[in-house]
Automatic annotation (TrEMBL):
<dbReference type="InterPro" id="IPR036388">
    <property type="entry name" value="WH-like_DNA-bd_sf"/>
</dbReference>
<protein>
    <submittedName>
        <fullName>HTH-type transcriptional regulator YiaJ</fullName>
    </submittedName>
</protein>
<dbReference type="InterPro" id="IPR005471">
    <property type="entry name" value="Tscrpt_reg_IclR_N"/>
</dbReference>
<dbReference type="InterPro" id="IPR050707">
    <property type="entry name" value="HTH_MetabolicPath_Reg"/>
</dbReference>
<dbReference type="Pfam" id="PF01614">
    <property type="entry name" value="IclR_C"/>
</dbReference>
<dbReference type="InterPro" id="IPR036390">
    <property type="entry name" value="WH_DNA-bd_sf"/>
</dbReference>
<dbReference type="GO" id="GO:0003677">
    <property type="term" value="F:DNA binding"/>
</dbReference>
<dbReference type="InterPro" id="IPR029016">
    <property type="entry name" value="GAF-like_dom_sf"/>
</dbReference>
<keyword id="KW-0238">DNA-binding</keyword>
<dbReference type="GO" id="GO:0045892">
    <property type="term" value="P:negative regulation of DNA-templated transcription"/>
</dbReference>
<dbReference type="InterPro" id="IPR014757">
    <property type="entry name" value="Tscrpt_reg_IclR_C"/>
</dbReference>
<keyword id="KW-0805">Transcription regulation</keyword>
<dbReference type="Pfam" id="PF09339">
    <property type="entry name" value="HTH_IclR"/>
</dbReference>
<keyword id="KW-0804">Transcription</keyword>
<feature type="domain" description="IclR-ED">
    <location>
        <begin position="68"/>
        <end position="253"/>
    </location>
</feature>
<feature type="domain" description="HTH iclR-type">
    <location>
        <begin position="5"/>
        <end position="67"/>
    </location>
</feature>
<dbReference type="GO" id="GO:0003700">
    <property type="term" value="F:DNA-binding transcription factor activity"/>
</dbReference>
Amino acid sequence: MSEQVKSLVKSMMVLEYLSHHPDGAALHEVTRQTGINKTSVYRMLTTFEALGYVTQQASTKNYRLTLKLLHIGHSALSSDVLTTIRPELNALMTALDETVNLISREGDKIVFRDKLEPRYASFRTRTFVGIYAEMYCTAAGKVFLAFSTSEDQENYWQRNTRLFQKLTDNTITEKSHFFEELKMIRAQGYAVDNEENEAGISCTAVPVFDNSGTPAYAVSVSTLTPRLRNMGPENLAGMIQKATSAIEQELFKK
């Protein structure tokens, strides 16, 4: 293997390491975890920063990926997964006349992979494709946790307890309440963000299971809370589940 190719491999190792740390990582952490010497890692990071793929946070000096990489990754996603399932997402949006999101999990965060909004939506959410969000206060995040292992749930709680905050009066920040919520979600098959992230807006999410029974994605629908109450969360979840079942068939040939 040529030296140029070896350098490229090492550069990709650095990018892949940062991809698992959406809040960023310090230079010494990247060096230790990748096994690449500090000088080389620094040169790679400064080069990626100059190209716009990495940014250094002013407060912590940590390095993290920028959304520029999303344009590359999203092109691959669009040509594969999104091309396959977009019709289902679009049909769901049309049927409900509400915002529909496709979400995946990355570490202790969720990331919005796609977002479809009605042309004349009654409101606009603050999310966009590529944005990361917390798991504890979102319907999709709670879905991923509810269908994970008890060990994963406990580890998530321990790692993130200090980050939990009351975004609204309904945000769950007490451990026993949160874990009871996860049990209920697993039993009923869907999660509801009951104005836990933003006052006046509720979100209902349903998992898309892969062949191992693990959520590969979640499909969520954002609604004004009065409209969700009129529809009934279980009725909305049922409509989403029809879409997720079709998506599972398309992606995993179940």
